[in-house]
Structures are given as structure tokens and as C-alpha cells.
Amino acid sequence: MKRQIYYIFFLLISIANTQAMAPTKYLLPANLQVLHCSRSIMLSEVGTKEKTGKNDGPQINKYLESVGIRTNAPYCAAFVFYCFDVVTLDKNMIPITKTAVANQIFSEAKKLGIPTFYSASIDDLIVWKYSNSWSGHIERIFEVHKAGWVLTVGANTSNGKRGSQREGNGVYIRRRNILHSLGRMYIRGLIGFKIEREK
């Protein structure tokens, strides 16, 4: 009897944890031209590499400077912000928050965005998170395939080839799945964009 009670208790805890970590999606308002132009910038940055493998180099520094950081810091979120930042002088038209922390971008989207059905679209941001940590990773989707598979551009990541270093050393195209974890990080969710009509 005790064993059955423990089993039921463990099962309930597991279900609760799974539901607590179930990925969600939120929509933020965005300008169509800013979205399209930022995607072009993002794709043009593919192939950028760090100078010495220590989150450094002239272009990496530009990503970090766009969110107010000088050098040598993780830059996946800074890269996402940078792609929006360089295409508009009106900073109010940047749909995401200015930060180098991937999960802060998601937390702001959760607070300000509209919850919607969990499925991938072009330009969505996919966010992963380490359990019990603020740390995570973010990439932007530019192609959507079947069964949750997408192509993304990610910064501060590796090229995905065998033998490449585990930690990121540049900006690469990656094949991801919106239902799969990334190493020890679980998927927190997606951030999508709802196009604002011109006034």
C-alpha cells in the first residue's frame, strides 16, 4: 500500500512538472518592414565567427554593444536584438526588450504578449532555459518544416558538425525542433509577432 501511495505521489509530481514546463507561445506587435529587414540582416550575419573563441571580435562586440555590454559576454540574445536595432532609428519599433538575457526576452513577451497556439512560424524566436537558472539560449526561425522541425539562425552557437566545439563560436544556421530540448536546456517557448497595421 505504501509503495502504491509513493508511486501515485511521484506520478502526480511528474505530471505537474511536465505541465509547468510545457512550452508556450506569445505574440508581440511588430512592424512588417522592421521584421523583414531584420531577417535580412540576420541571414547576412551567418558565418560570423569569434576572433579567439572567447565571445570576442569586432562583429561580436557590435552585437553586445547594441544592448549596452562592452565585450566578452554570451551574445545569443544580443544578436537577436542587434538585427532589429540596426534597421530602425525609432527604437520603439523594436518588438523585443533590450537585453543580453534570452529568458528576459521571453519573460517580457509573456507579460506583454498575447498567448496563442503553440506552433512555429517564420520569424518566431525559440527560447530554451536551464532548470533553476536564469541562463538559456535564443534563436530565430527562418524556415518551418514538418513535425516541429525548423531552421534557425543562432549566435553564440556551434556549426552543429561533429567534432565542433560544444560552446558557441559564431553565427550559424541550425536545425532545431520546437518540441525538443537542447542539451540540458528545456524549451521555454516561442515568441511570435503580430503585424501592426499602418496608421
Provide an overview of this structure:
- The protein contains 5 helices and 7 strands; from the N terminus they run H-E-H-H-H-H-E-E-E-E-E-E.
- The protein has a 7-stranded mixed beta sheet.
- Helix 2 packs across helix 4 (76-85) and helix 3 (58-65) crosses helix 4 (76-85).
- Residues 5-20 have low confidence and may be disordered.
- By secondary structure, the protein is α+β, with helices and mostly antiparallel strands.
* Helix content estimate: 25-40%
Major sheet details: 7 strands, mixed
Determine the mean pLDDT.
88
Write out the strand line-up for the largest beta sheet, numbering strands in chain order. Answer: 2-1-7-3-4-5-6
Report the end-to-end length measured between terminal Cα atoms: 67 Å
Identify the notable features of this structure and list them briefly.
globular; 199 residues; alpha+beta; 7 strands
Which helices and strands occur, and which strands form pairs?
Blueprint: H1 2-20, E1 24-30, H2 32-44, H3 58-65, H4 76-85, H5 102-112, E2 114-116, E3 125-130, E4 136-144, E5 149-157, E6 170-177, E7 185-195
Helix pairs in contact: 2-4, 3-4
